[in-house]
Amino acid sequence: MHKLLMRVTLTVFVTTGAVLLALIVVVNHEIAENFTSYLNMSGMHGMMQHGMTPPPSMGLPEQEFLRSLKHSLVLVGSIMLGFGAIISYYLARSITAPMLTLNKAVKSVAAGNLDASVVIHRKDELGQLAAAFNEMTKKLKSTTILRQRFFAGIAHELRTPLTILKANLEGIADGVITPDKEQMASLTEEVDRLTKLVEELRDLSFLEAGQLKPEFRKIDIGSILYQIVQKSQLLAVEKRLSLTCNIKTQLAPIKADITMIQQIIYNLIINAIRYTNTGSIQVIATQNATSTIIEVIDTGIGIDRQDLPHIFDYFYRVDLSRTKQSGGTGLGLALVKQMALAHKGNISVHSELSKGSTFRLTLPFNIH
Length: 368
Description:
Layout: H1 2-50, H2 60-110, H3 125-174, H4 181-209, E1 217-219, H5 221-231, H6 233-238, E2 242-247, E3 254-256, H7 258-274, E4 280-287, E5 291-298, H8 324-327, H9 332-342, E6 346-352, E7 356-364
Parallel strand pairs: 2-4
Antiparallel strand pairs: 1-3, 4-5, 5-7, 6-7
Helix pairs in contact: 1-2, 2-3, 3-4, 4-9, 5-7, 7-9
């Protein structure tokens, strides 16, 4: 980086010196030419008035004057060249110093320090580069944390059912546990849980890689909402919750993947039932000029403000104390987000603790 500083300084200095030297030569030549022309014209005019022959155009005083002028130009040029060298150095330093800072930060990130950042109070291209670097490290850190949580979540989600299966199978093999119908049903439930987890992981992987494309066709979104709400009534009744579907206007058909839309709505409703102990859950659908808006509103426990930015992350649970039976796999909302994005749509949430949550799904009409 110091070599770069010297190269930039030398380049600016040589350019400045060349321009200054050319300027001195041109000025000296023009002054000499004009001065000689002036003397010739003045001498000829005087001699002609007295009928005499003109003398040589330039005497010693004039030559001394020109030499003095040249020395002055050289002196001024040297002083300006010195200032140019100083200015060149500081100009080059102002360019390379932020780059040196960025270089150190890049090396720090390469060494594993994702908290590295660059403080450059500039609004030019270097300032924009520093801001882009800081944004990159911020996203890289977020991605790293998410990946760590992802692998930790997978390990946690797989360990529990595998431990249960192993313990029960060993008990059966040792004759300690009788493989009756109830026992086999319990083992089957754990296998189903593992199967569901693997399928959700596969779907998420395909969606993020763009390999799982929605099969768009016209669907009656209102009819689908009523069907899903009807199928979910039993789960709501078990918790003594009111589950209703409210479609305020006649909904026009939309182009969407019916399987994905069903899974999105079903996941949102199940999530609302899981985190609502008393009260009601409403599914509301409206349309405007550009999109269909579906809201799932509950009166549940709500979500803390600090948890809201992570609610759609893999294996993120608002209440870490919840068991597997009540907390799901932690992938439901992540799937909802990816499926919404696959439809060029958006999923958002508004929530207050102890007051409930509202999940809003927006599906645009024009999908390209």
